[in-house]
Specification:
binds xanthosine-5'-monophosphate, five-stranded parallel sheet, 20 strands, alpha/beta
Length: 522
Amino acid sequence: MGKSLKELVLVLDFGGQYKELIAGMVRGLSVYSEIKRGDISIAELKQLNPIGIILTGGPDSVNSPTSPKCSPELFELGVPVLGICYGMQLMCRILGGKVECGKFGEYGCVDVTHIASGKTSTALMSHRDSVTEPPDGFAVTMRSPNCIAAVENPTRKLYGVQFHPESKHTVGGREVIRRFLYEVCGAKGNYKLDDYIETAISQIREIVNESVLVNNRGKTDNNQVLLGLSGGVDSSVCAALLSKAVPGRLTCIFVDHGFMRQNEGNEIEEIFSKCNLTFIRVNAQERFLAKLKGIVDSETKRKLIGYEFVRVFEEQASLICSQESGNSAVFLAQGTIYPDIVESGGKHGATIKSHHNVGGLPENLAFEGIVEPLSGLFKDEVRVLGKKLGLTDKLINRQPFPGPGLAIRVMGEVTKAKLEIIRNSDAILREELEKAVIQRPDQYFTVLTDTRTVGVKGDDRTYDYVVAIRAVTTGDFMTCEYTPLPHELLGRISSRLTSEIPEISRVVYDITSKPPATIEWE
Ligand code: XMP
């Protein structure tokens, strides 16, 4: 939906996990960005006419014949390029420099020195290979203890950094991107979210009305839109936007799959049944549980839940279609956001997890079409949009909750009994955190591990579950640090969990950052 804007910076993906951080940072600096495959054709590049190109990092070695490459012509277009990590190595190698593997690897924060000024700052590194000889015409501008940290050829407007400026652990990283955009690419900074609402509304109307005309269905003013509402930020903002675009024609379906947190289903029903839209709650708990019987693999769980979700939807849609006149059509709306799309696709990037609102869509959907009005936005942008649309802070700032819900916080097979344990433990954790006088983590929950250990309660030996506490600090949910909760608070939570929930014998605290761990355990 930002495509009509002139200024575009392309982020070319070579499989790095941080591509969205880069694109999000560019947008945060008021320049519209999109992520494309690293091997995009020169013809398409020319057609998109970007003011700058950023090459992402990636897990491969540029020296491997099978690693992802870009066209050498990309560097001849006169368009400024910033190569990051693998992107820098790729640019240097294509242009005649040397990249070596092995002894120069660095992982984590290191000191990098700006050669001209002698100043040192901290930067996040994550690389095995390094540029050991820059191409002709390139100067080395920064060094780390092990390697060349930055190169440049200002005449050709080609720049490379071995560190990750998109990471918040790199001091001054945002400034590196800002200078590339404004000083090298000459950006004016014309990307504003304010324009988004009007553009999105007219595009929604266009899709919902015009595709029906194309299909010769005649009347266009009573077509319906169905939205899966989970009560999370994305679907709530989507509902607000759609009810503005097609008032009176939006039906929100809340599929209660039974994996919601304590009392959450009732809360969602209470909020949305008061709004100016048709709200339907489908109680499908037993059905989902039956599908997951005997399933232990996390990806299979995710896929089955996603698939079942869509099935429930189709059933509701056909009920609604049959109630409508022959002239109307039903469109499926989804609160899919940009990272959902980027993370679920991509040739080079490894699929870390299937995000179920994208991964499980079957091809035989009985809908006239699909509307995804948030699909160009990052999470932070969705929140800002929600505020502009008048949603409450409580709703907008809710901590994220995954589509498959508590099912992916129960390791191994999901059963009613395990769901009860995870739900109660989550409620205790939330209650304690919400009354503690601390800055709350960005996301916090419990995980029911599939491990049982020996304990002693009263004078009896017990053999019960280990529950983990996960609390993370993050801005973008692409990377995170564990939140160091006060020990006293952790102790209180542990004591409540083990005394109030008989099936828990032990509580552990997850202190892993992302990467290498993900936020959810499955
Ligand atoms: P991970 O575990 O990938 O999670 O580090 C990053 C963020 O995404 C949420 N998450 C999901 N959200 N559908 C969603 O809508 C999903 O399938 C899903 N899986 C993870 C997770 O809670 C965290 O905020």
